[in-house]
Amino acid sequence: MGIGKIFTNKKYSGLIWHLIFAGVFIGLSLFFIEFTEGVTWYLISTVLRIIFGTAILIVSSKLFDRKISEILSFKNTKGALLAGAGFLLFFVYYLITVVSGIGGIVGLTTGVFLSKVILQQASTGFYEEINYRFLLLEGLKHTKNDISMKILYTMVSSVLFGLLHCVTDWDTYTFLRTGIIGFAFAVIFVKSGNIVVPMILHFLYDIIAKMVVFIEWNHNIIYDSANAIFKIMLVILFVISFIILVMPQKQKSI
Predict the structure, then answer these.
(1) Is the pLDDT of residue 145 over 90?
(2) Of 187, 195, 222, whose CA–CA distance to 86 is shortest?
(3) What is the tens place of the pLDDT at every residue in 3-20?
(4) Residues near 63 by beta carbon (within 8 Å), at least 6 away in sequence
(5) Could you state, in order of their start, the residue ranges of all structural domains in the chain?
(6) pLDDT for 73 beyond 50
(7) Are the CB atoms for 103 and 203 separated by under 8 Å?
(8) In this predicted structure, what is the pLDDT of residue 4?
(9) What Cα–Cα distance (Å) separates residue 19 from each residue in 62, 88, 253?
(10) From CA 17, how far away is CA 61, in angstroms rounded?
């Protein structure tokens, strides 16, 4: 097989392009974070995510013969939300847990809020969903696209997404937590073909996750009880998403 085929085969070249983009992105991020911090780093990080997300979008468009307007479409939003039932349940639980435990906000300046919580997370939802979901999973529809292939593709996406969050410091719990959440986003895309809904849900989840470090916790029965079952809710999220993935559907998948 010629070298050109490796980069243009619709079945698996998305993985090749993903590894290239992810590797360069991680390398540049680690470089810049050595010399910057705070708002400056968050803004640089935001720019990197926008640049790489846009580049991946262009490559994906050409690789899979899809118009960018088709990729970034709200088509089948209802199907995407139904496929995301597990994540929506988890998100509501997570939101209730955090809100019930807020005793105060400490150390959050306007600059950090805008750069880290809003801009960086908006660009993260864009970049990571394009790279870890669309680019990795779009090739699925060029395979036999049966249950085994759906599981294979979504698990590869989930593992790589989990590894992303352990680049600088391995932590099994972080790997599993982010991998499961990434799996839920992958299922939404595979079942609906809609990448915009996962982007939005990713952004909303990240807003809360980034706010957590600034919260002064008020321990009460609601917060403590909800927080105690966090790992159980992750398992429920995975199980519901897996069931949705393997369920037959009348409409065409991605």
Answers:
(1) no
(2) 187
(3) 668 888 999 999 999 999
(4) 8, 10, 13, 14, 17
(5) 3-246
(6) yes
(7) no
(8) 66
(9) 17, 29, 25
(10) 13
Which letter, b or e, does each residue of 167-191 get, where b requires 16 or more Cβ atoms within 10 Å of its Cβ?
eeeeeeeebbbbbbbbbbbbbbbbb
CA pair distance 171, 190, nearest whole angstrom? 28
> b/e per residue, 217-247, with b = 16+ CB within 10 A?
eeeeeebeebeeeeeebbeebbebbbebbee
Token pair of 131 as six digits: 């790279």
Contacts of 95-101 with C-beta under 8 Å, sequence gap 24+, read 95/208, 96/222, 96/226, 97/223, 97/226, 97/227, 97/230, 98/208, 98/211, 98/212, 98/215, 100/220, 100/222, 100/223, 100/226, 101/215, 101/217, 101/218, 101/219, 101/220, 101/222, 101/223, 101/227
For tokens 């915009």, the residue is 196
Q: How confident is the model at residue 249 (pLDDT cuts 50, 70, 90)?
A: confident
pLDDT digits (tens, 9 = 90+) for 191-247: 999 999 999 999 999 999 999 999 999 999 999 999 999 999 999 999 999 999 999
Provide the residue type at 11 as one letter.
Answer: K
Cβ pair 129, 185 in contact under 8 A: yes
Dump pLDDT digits (tens) for 38-49: 999 999 999 999
pTM for the full model? 0.95
- Joined together, the tokens standing for residue 49 give 């995510």
